[in-house]
Amino acid sequence: MEGVGNTQSLRDEVVQSGLRRTEELNATQPEVYTFSIIYIRRTPVAGKGSVTPLQQSALIPRPVLKDQLTVESYCDKEGSRTEDSLATRAKQLVLWAFALGCSATLLHAPAALAQTWQPPQTSSPAAAQFPVASDVRVAGDAKQTRFILDLDRKVELRAFTLADPYRVVVDLPQVTFQLQNGAGETKRGLIKAFRYGLVMAGGSRLVFDLAGPAKIEKAHVVDAANGQPARLILELAAVDRTTFVQQLSADSRPQLRPAFGGTPIETTSATPAALNANAATGSKPDARPVIVIDPGHGGIDHGTEASTGEMEKTLVLDFAKALRDRIESSGKYRVVMTRSDDTFVALGERVKVARNHTAALFVSIHADALPRGDSSAQGATIYTLSDKASDAEAERLAELENKADAIAGFNLTEEPSDVADILIDLTQRETKTFSNRFARTLMGEMKSVARMHKHPLKSAGFKVLKAPDVPSVLIELGYVSNKDDLKLLVSESWRSRTVGSVAQAVEAFLGKRVVNATPGR
Predict the structure, then answer these.
(1) Would you say residue 219 lies in a domain?
(2) Is 245:223 a contact under the CB 8 Å cutoff?
(3) How many whole angstroms separate alpha carbon 314 and alpha carbon 330?
């Protein structure tokens, strides 16, 4: 409103320009008039209805501005015909003061609106359908400890203990965790640390590392009440090892299933009968070699984590998806993923996926990290299976990767072999030969596009590589603890080049088999 200096000049502007009648009711608020100052500058009116409107309006309650008390009644021709009485003049002065007040308010309305109005916050339907965990507290000492998790609604749970190492596991329906960074590093009383996350589709899990043997005294969720949200409460009490072991039962090692009941969740592995179901329909079996790509970790198991927050489970999943797409684009191979989302898959299940699909090749994708302060190691490394680690670093890494099941709260008992040891030994010898051959081929392709470790070929006792009849390798793409490696790991350009080199190695290793592919192996 440039050019309007004071109240008197503003009044002069209004008097000379006039106001138009605005007594229409507001469309969305029936009891409110919309009062708009239509014209306020000395701009000539070109014709009827051609005045320039002011962009702001004021909403005035109907009881305040009655129909007969409109600006037009006192300002235009109709007003000029009214009796020039003292009462009339008094009404005019009152109305002018009111109009000037509205005008001044409207002058400042845009800035006020910009400062106070915010668009309504909406959440996506996908996020809204799951309960949300928003805060956590731990209290107590080495004898009794209480853990509290705030939730936006009540959920069911199931809690049990695991030994060696001492752990408490709490299974929940799928929950969206919105906890502060580092929340799981809370150390107090009987709880050394805890992890949380998706352990399967439809199910989340909390895993507590204990300072010693303990029993679960209480594990329940209370309703929201007295201004407090719904809360998951876990109370632990210290016991001796004998008591701890006695409380373990078959229920302490349940099948992987949602906490709210139902049948066990099927893993991504398929039976040979399911794979050959097309035979029953008379269709020709798919004779293409199967390549199983295994993105490490997932769900509650984050893997290694960079100081800037990038998690191994996400980096390797992105790489694995890109590799799958690149290999499938040739049409020569069938690709199976052990996981294609942020879900935990036990090590034994990953091996079963390869064996049940009669895979021609198993490629596990990971990223390494060294202890804080040690960022000297860098580059990609390719690992194969061996009983004795090739060096101390390979031994350390295998030990770390083999803890994945413990991290996610699973029993660590080895599954019994289903065939005679002598047969396993004979088969594994041949399989190791093929695994080593592919590893060398892979190194030759990768070194032309990616930075490699100074000792790029290593071996150790990785559980995930123990399929006796499937050539298997584990690729550590780089170190998230090294800033240069991390820069590459998050780079799409680097990922594309490296994916291309791995796909080329697969082609070099399996190319001849594709030419002579037959329905069975």
Answers:
(1) yes
(2) no
(3) 26
Please report which helix (H) or strand (E) contains residue 151, including its range: strand 144-151
Beta strands in 419-515 (DSSP E): 452-460, 472-479
438 located within any domain: yes
- Among 381, 376, 504, 363, CA closest to 452: 381
Q: Dump pLDDT digits (tens) for 243-259.
A: 888 877 544 443 443 43
Same domain, 462 and 339: yes
- 230: amino acid identity, one letter: A
149-183 pLDDT, tens digit each:
999 999 999 999 988 888 999 999 999 999 988 88
Range of the domain at 32: 7-110
Q: What is the mean pLDDT of residues 282-288?
A: 74
Strand-pair category, 167-173 with 158-162: antiparallel
Q: Decide if 189 contacts 142 (C-beta within 8 A).
A: yes
Q: Helices H, strands E: what count in the chain?
A: 15, 17
Per DSSP, the residues of 407-428 read HTT---PPPPPSS-HHHHHHHH
**281 to each of 140, 254, 285, 290, 518, how far by Cα in Å?**
63, 37, 10, 21, 19
Determine, yes or no, domain membership for 261.
no
Among 176-180, 372-376, 416-420, the least confident range: 416-420
Asked, for residue 120, whether it belongs to a domain, the answer is no
DSSP for 484-498? Answer: HHHHHHT-HHHHHHH
Do 95 and 15 meet the contact criterion of CB atoms below 8 Å apart?
A: no
Rounded Cα–Cα distance for residues 325 and 218 (Å):
48
Cα separation, 337 vs 343, in Å, equals 12
CA separation, residue 230 to residues 11, 138, 145, 202 (Å):
60, 16, 20, 20
Cis upstream peptide for 254 (omega within 30°): no
Residues 227 and 299 in one domain: no
pLDDT digits (tens, 9 = 90+) for 55-93: 344 444 444 443 434 444 434 444 444 444 555 565 565
pTM for the model stands at 0.59
